[in-house]
Amino acid sequence: MVLAAGARTRPHYGDTLRIEIQGDAWAPDGLARRLVLNTLTNLSGSGAALPALAVQWSAQNAGQRWDFQLRPQVRFEDGTLLTANDVVASLAESCAGIMGPGAASAVPVAACPWNAVYAAGSSDVIITAITPMPDLPELLAQTRFAVLKQDATGQVEGTGPFRVSGFADGALTLTANDDCWQGRPFLDSVAIFPHRAIRDQWLDLSVGRADVVQIPPELLGQAQQQHLDVLVSQPVDLLALTLAQQGPFADPALRESAALAVDRSALYNVIFQKQGEVSASLLPESLSGYSFLFPTERDLNRARALRGGAPSPPMTISADSGSGSLRLAAERLALNLHEAGFIVRTAPTGTPAVLNLRLVHLEEASPRAALDEMLARFGQSVTVNGTDPESLLLAENTALQNHTVVPLLWLPRAWAVGERVRDLRLSPDGEPLLANASLEAAR
To answer: What is the 3-state secondary structure (H, E, C) of 126-186?
Structure first.
């Protein structure tokens, strides 16, 4: 169910919106990055690429070469104009590589879908690859490709609707960018309180100390029972188990055994309180239309047969987040694997382990781009040939057949909104669009 915090009054300029989150505001897909930085493109609700810092683009050589023309007169916070060289430098940093001034000298970076990026004059960015990139405009809307630069003190500067003004009293404060090319936001500032426990977030919302707070999927039913004004996204977070391809799981049969031993239904029904959807696919059903073809049922007998009778070496499972639900899910999976004959113990959050429980966020909203994104996030070097469901299904089957990635559940994102918040909506990937929100004027 999606409830919108709709406009009951004319939007009001001013005031500070207070939002509390569990994680880091400046994470790769964090809230602060979305407010301070812009990407070359944005996504429509259907996942199509829309102009942002780039106003138009064209492809040559069957999508192996793209030319992005930058929006004129866009300025960074310090007043300097955005140039193609700024974009090239920022994209190079996001790929953890160094790009040269021309295609011949650019260093290929495996983490990115391209092989080279360079400036053509002051307003054109050229991106090339050995293989076609038909969905590059959509992929460039991801926050990891947001354009930024750093000043002499290391302060990050962007072109977005807000700028960083400081961190004090536990809050990262962002102030409105009056000269933003998108126009000034209604809010004067946004105060983001990171690393807040859910219990504290809900308490602050109830007494008016917070305007927007997070709702974990497993607590969504409880929030609705308490009649909170709730915004809920489509499933956008994939809970998946990853298995190291060396050590105890070097044998593909053992990885398949572990994949068959997991009990998705228990995770869905007990830990996540029937939110989202059980899935063995890298894409949610709403995007692919074929995720039901991947079997989700547990097969403990076959898991035991594949493992064989040899003694299992001790191994560990770790969750990539300190959230209580992920720790419980890791413990449940350890029990599942124990029933198949594996000796598994849980390890502290973030500890290197042969089994890792990951919650991976999906930003893309079109099937081809979404699959490319998920393959990249899980380090799967599989080429997707085509945009039709058959091509996507073939590529996903190829990626999953070695059982190094075991999708478990797709989960939504949800937020509770205070009474004075107006016109708050969610982006296609479930993040609050604070740049368009306002607060009711004090009476």
So the answer is: EEECCCCCCCHHHHCCCHHHCECEECCCCCEECCCCEEEEEEECCEEEEEECCCCCCCCCC
